[in-house]
Amino acid sequence: TGDWDGAPIFVGAMRYPVKTVYLEDMLTELPRLSEACGWFIEAEVRRMNEAAAGRTDGKRGISPWDVSRVDMKRTVCDTVAHVARAGECVLVFLPGLLEISRLAETLQETAASVPLQVLMLHSLVPEEEQARCLLPAEPGHCKVILSSNIAETSVTIPDVKWVLDLGVHREMWYCARRKFQVLTVSWTSKASAKQRAGRAG
């Protein structure tokens, strides 16, 4: 009121630049990833080249279900081990609790340059463990948070340095043929991918 009437007010937050690195780009730094997911990358690149040349021939693109055929546990574990630094946080987006639990077990046995503090973030995980995700990493450890899309907007983790996004999530779809809803794996939208990447910004 008073002297401030009509004055513009700007409310915002400073964002840090985020660099996006795609899976195929990681192969130059981690050649062993090609054993786990090289075929997936080659198939997608070939499909995009054919589409650009107008030679699609009605072929479908890579589906979210194809991701399950990739050795994602090995891919994620190798990538986490590569980027892990003491005092930093790696946020990994996964489709659901099953994938989160399985990857957590594998990461516990992953050899990295620093010890890994593996935490799970999901609505079905006890609140105590969810709260630990918001605390700094244990001394000398790299904090690795395995999360569903709950960390996309609902929870802000302050110390995220790296985001690994598989680009898939689970959502309800109505099956017209069977006439009921099913929980299925589908691609995330570009907006969601941008939002997830922003967790490190």
Explain what this protein looks like in three dimensions.
The chain has 201 residues and is α/β, with parallel strands linked by helices. The chain has a domain at 64-200: P-loop containing nucleotide triphosphate hydrolases (Rossmann fold), CATH 3.40.50.300. The protein is 35% helix and 19% strand. It has helices at residues 23-26, 33-52, 64-67, 72-83, 97-108, 127-132, 150-153, 190-197, and strands at 89-93, 116-121, 142-147, 160-165, 168-175, 180-187. The strands form two sheets. Strands 2-3-1-4 form a four-stranded parallel sheet, sandwiched between helices. Helix 6 (127-132) links the parallel strand 2 (116-121) and strand 3. The two termini are 35 Å apart. The mean pLDDT is 78. GO terms for molecular function: helicase activity; RNA binding. It comes from Hemiselmis tepida. Residues 75-201 form the Helicase C-terminal domain. InterPro entries: Helicase_C-like (IPR001650), P-loop_NTPase (IPR027417). This is Helicase C-terminal domain-containing protein.
